[in-house]
Write a structure and sequence with these properties.
There is one protein chain. By secondary structure, the protein is mostly helical. The protein has one domain. Helix 3 packs across helix 5. The longest helix is centred in the N-terminal third of the chain and has 33 residues. It is elongated and about 60 Å long. It starts with 12 loop residues before the first helix and ends in a 10-residue tail after the last strand.
Length: 174
Amino acid sequence: MTYSTQFYPGSDAWLIRGVLSRRFEAWLLDAVLMLVLTAMAWVSCLTFGVLTLGLAWPLFHLLPAVPFVYSVGFLISPLSATPGQWLRGLAVRRDTDLGPPELWQAVVCTIGYYVTVATSGLLLLIALVTERRRTLHDMAAGVVVVRRAALADLDAPLTSFGVASNMSSRSWPQ
């Protein structure tokens, strides 16, 4: 499904209303989920390592990849969001046409996020002043985080006083 090929300043505020606070809450949820997944993987590596008399100890080197695979895997899934984002009603979309992100965009966004966090995380504050509350890694990847409910409104037929409008549901004010 494709939407408008370009955003216009001010016309997409309904897509991003409340996104920053929801993103922070989603980050907390995702951090807990990644911690649980990493702990489960650690226990599995330990068990497998003991069962193989130490031959599987190198599997512990794969544990740092768990958050990366978690983020990229969920961003390219049909949800277009991590579980935390999905629970908070968010979706990650391409900036140009609001389609789901491609693999390269999910990888760039995830790498950019972890580089930003590794360098103190202060660069995340740029989202407070950017036009669509986008962080640097969002801009680098060409994605935008929007509310899922607003995306659903794009697919709903436009009506005026309960009567279907003659405007297509695929277009929005330009």
